[in-house]
Amino acid sequence: MSTLETVSPRIATEPAIITEDLVRTFGEKVAVDHLNLRIDKGEIFGFLGPNGSGKSTTIKMLCGLLSPSSGKAIVSGIDVRRDAERIRSKIGYMPQKFSLYEDLTVKENIDFYSQLYGVKGPGAKRRKEEVIELVGIGHYRDFLGKQLSGGWKQRLALCCALVHQPEIIFLDEPTASMDPVARRGLWDLLFTLASSGVTLFVTTHYMDEAERCSSVGYIYNSRLIVSGGPDEIKQVREVIGQGNVHLEVVCKPLVRTFNLVKALPYVQDVTIFGQALHVVSVHPEAYQLLADDLRQSAVQVQEIREIQPSLEDVFVTLTKASMAEEEARLRDKAGKLGKAHPTGFDDEDESDA
Ligand SMILES: Nc1ncnc2c1ncn2[C@@H]1O[C@H](COP(=O)(O)OP(=O)(O)OP(=O)(O)O)[C@@H](O)[C@H]1O
Ligand SMILES: [Mg+2]
């Protein structure tokens, strides 16, 4: 990744994907706003962001399925605006909604996609068997598409995306309907592919999956707001707020303590995490203040310790900061126009700003 260096060792430093100020609009809506990315060969890049933030639109542009409104994207050395057709032979694409043929068997679906990708000749049969084995779907080869569960449909989708031995695979929420065991199985498979030099571009809403990636990007409101190695992103203090202190409090009763902590003036954010609270404060003495406050209440505190922020903490903090910036911008614009701004905030809200 270009914004921040990744911590994990690289398999290669040659770029697989580069975008420069990539933009896609739909009418007035800017779905992807000046996206700058560099993803090296052999990387597993995790692309995260809330619903509607622009992940699938980015993937469709990189796969040559949607033309960019402006900017540049080079995939496997090919400019997507110039030669989208050639890109498709070098990449595999597993869409968010895979359209398998319900009335064809697993094997027939794979046959269909291999013909589509021009996999033919003496090696074709062997290649199909290889992907069936790699994905572990052999047991279901004679099942009809409609007989497969959601997780197995996803695996079939991956099979179809792999059959022509692509250099780069785009997977749009591949584990969305998978149980935890199937998810882990799919990730083991992704690591196997990456270790053979394949580059993977994966969108997900799962933070544990993001932690497994060699680099991640977080897109919010169509704009990339951070990118880099998962561990590194957590270390970059200016990203999550200068001087932030992250504390974990194991205590009882949890919900009552949550409400109590939320009201403390030096606490910026608190959330329930299993049997503990995760607290964010910018106060340098937050640890001591919190310990004192909780001692004086009827809360049973088992442990308070300083922790590293999780990726979720980082993304939530960044999202809130971006939302606040956007609100300020809209208020400013509304002020200049001398009328209420378009988010529908009433006068009372505006006077609070
Ligand atoms: N074909 C289209 N026509 C008009 N607007 C579109 C089109 N495709 C996407 N959009 C809009 O672009 C924005 C980004 O959509 P996109 O599907 O890329 O989001 P996403 O991050 O993949 O969301 P999700 O997590 O829900 O899959 C959304 O506001 C969406 O409504
Ligand atoms: Mg999407």
Structure report:
The protein has 353 residues and is of the alpha/beta class. Helix content is 39%, strand content 26%. It has helices at 55-62, 84-90, 106-116, 123-135, 150-162, 180-195, 207-212, 230-235, 237-240, 254-262, 286-296, 311-337, 347-352, and strands at residues 15-26, 29-40, 44-48, 70-75, 78-79, 91-94, 168-172, 199-203, 215-220, 223-228, 245-252, 267-273, 276-281, 300-306. The strands form three sheets. Strands 6-7-8-3-9-10 form a six-stranded mixed β-sheet, with helices on both faces. Strand 9 (215-220) and strand 10 (223-228) form a beta hairpin. The longest helix has 27 residues, at 311-337. The protein is globular, with a radius of gyration of 24 Å. 36% of the residues are buried. The structure holds adenosine-5'-triphosphate and magnesium ion. Magnesium ion binds at residues 55-56, 96, 172.
The helix fraction, in percent, is: 25-40%
Number of helices: 13
Secondary-structure element order, N to C = EEEHEEHEHHHEHEHEEHHEHEEHEHH
Bound molecules: adenosine-5'-triphosphate, magnesium ion
Average predicted confidence as pLDDT: 87
| Residues in β-strands, percent | 25-35%
**How is the CATH topology of the largest domain named?**
Rossmann fold
The structural domain count equals 2
User: How far apart lie the N and C ends?
Assistant: 37 Å
Q: Tell me the Rg in angstroms.
A: 24 Å
The CATH architecture name of the largest domain reads 3-Layer(aba) Sandwich
Q: Determine the CATH superfamily of the largest domain.
A: P-loop containing nucleotide triphosphate hydrolases
Structural class: alpha/beta
Q: Count of DSSP E strands?
A: 14
Low-confidence stretches: 1-12, 343-353
Give a short account of the largest sheet: 6 strands, mixed
Output the CATH class name of the largest domain.
Alpha Beta
Physical arrangement of strands within the biggest beta sheet: 6-7-8-3-9-10
The backbone outline, from C-alpha atoms, is: globular
